[in-house]
Amino acid sequence: MNQSEIKALTYQKSEPVDSTKIRTSEFSIVIHGGAGTILKENMTPEKEAAYKAKLEEAIRVGYTILKNGGSSLDAVQKTINVMEDSPLFNAGKGAVFTNAGTNEHDASIMDGKTLNAGASAGTSTVKNPINLARAIMEHSPHVMLSGKGAEQFAKEQGLELVSPEYFYTEKSFQALQRVKKSEQVSLSFYNEDIKDTKFGTVGCAALDKHGNLAAGTSTGGMTNKRWGRIGDSPIIGAGTYANNATCAVSCTGWGEYFIRGVVAYDISALMDYKGLSLRDAAKEVIQKKIPALGGDGGVIAVDKLGNMVMEFNTAGMFRATMNDKGELYIGMYNE
């Protein structure tokens, strides 16, 4: 070995390690079940236990997929399926009612590796809207399908369709009656667990062992919504975004403001262009930019190194995380 080779070797050994590039977790998964005025005094012990149990059930489905080497896309989809099948959340089975007394679902999913994405809006017979979003992403030349066309595509893809009555829950129906009775012209998602909020959504973001990120979001929208209103959840860049170079994000909030703020993409852009950490980027958008516009809500996100955030500016957000060590965190209130 000559002197130049020895010098090069010495330099390599003494070069400082950049801690911002160290992967903190081999895989990570984070979920939300909606943000809003979630207060402990409004929650019975039984309901609190029910929410925590369902959040744990959902995230463990995705965790198991990731632990076994599965893809972040599969983990996101299957985790959201659990919450879509539960009447506790405003997505799938538990979707809120429109002004016309119907249920209209929106969903989206994005692959951070390819930047491919799929979304559906305004469907009323697709049992699991996140499954339709993924089918659109993988089996159509389009990104977003809506209404009857989206339902026709779902049928052609062999997805499970149900009668609109499947989505009826007494809780959501009574919430519509209360909103109409109070003549609230401002659209609201209202139930006895989340008081006077304007949103309720489920979502998931994940990093798999292969370094691929994915995010997905599913919602029933706002109670008493009209005219085919669509929020941020099915809009790529507003309610959902994933990019292996930065992070994966799912949002829950007042959709009109999250659309205007392009919230999910904005967090990624702050990381990409300004070099912000995931935590700083999420704080900038959720604690400063969205409130300045007049909106509120929250995000869950995971970056390419496995770091996770659950940022919100409301009284609470149903949320949970798990890392490669199997460490589970479940939160509901603004703790």
TrEMBL record:
InterPro entries: Ntn_hydrolases_N (IPR029055), Peptidase_T2 (IPR000246). The record marks 200-201 as: Cleavage. The active site is at 201 (nucleophile). Gene3D superfamilies: (Glycosyl)asparaginase. Substrate binds at residues 229-232, 252-255. It holds the Pfam family Asparaginase_2. CDD domains: Asparaginase_2. One of its GO terms (biological process) is proteolysis. This is Isoaspartyl peptidase. It comes from Yeosuana aromativorans. The lineage of its organism: Bacteria, Pseudomonadati, Bacteroidota, Flavobacteriia, Flavobacteriales.
